[in-house]
Amino acid sequence: MKGASILALVILVLSGFVTADHNFMLTVNGNYYFEGDSHYKDFYGESRIFPEGKLAVRLFGNFYLWGSYGYMWTTQTYNAWSSKGVFNADLETESTLKKHIISGGLGYYAGYIEPGEWGLRLELGMCRITNKVRTVSNYLASNDVFSDEEREESGLGFRTNFGVTYGLLKGVYAEALGGYI
Question: Which phi and psi angles does 162 have, rounded to 5°?
Fold first, then answer.
């Protein structure tokens, strides 16, 4: 986990790039995600870091359209029982969650992306989160597959972001961003 935290910090420092004409913005960042669904939180953990890429295209003035894609995954391994009549756990179960987050919307930027300059970003939009879960159970004694199940669920919701940017170089900035998915 320490390695992932350091990676996220490095990504945050080298967060964004803007074209010379300020019409396109590319952001690559690490997000710290707090799970809201109690089922996933209890099983896979309360929070995790995941990468996200975002492309923004200026509409007019300080308004822009943005789209982003984020991906996170986690694996949980535990021992289980193949039936009620079994006294000791005889299965090893591995469950993998892959979460895809696709978002887009309208944004507003106030400030300059110049060295030493501060700026503010506000983004409102929609997001689609898709959870793909694969659970594989193997017999501990022989490693033969007992069951292999996959399921997928997704939902549509709102997304808001509020960020503070700081210009590092001409067209390169660092950003601290908070939001709700």
Answer: -135, 125
State residue 112 phi and psi, 5-degree precision.
-130, 145
pTM: 0.75
Q: Say how far apart CA 177 and CA 179 lie, in whole Å.
A: 7
On the 0-12 / 13-18 / 19+ scale of CB atoms within 10 A, 112 is middle
Bridge partners (DSSP) of residue 114 are none
75-103: pLDDT as tens digits:
888 777 766 776 677 778 888 888 899 99
What is the three-state SS of 104-163? EEEEEEEECCCCCCEEEEEEEEEEEEEEEEEEEEEECCCCCEEEEEEEEEEEEEEEEEEE
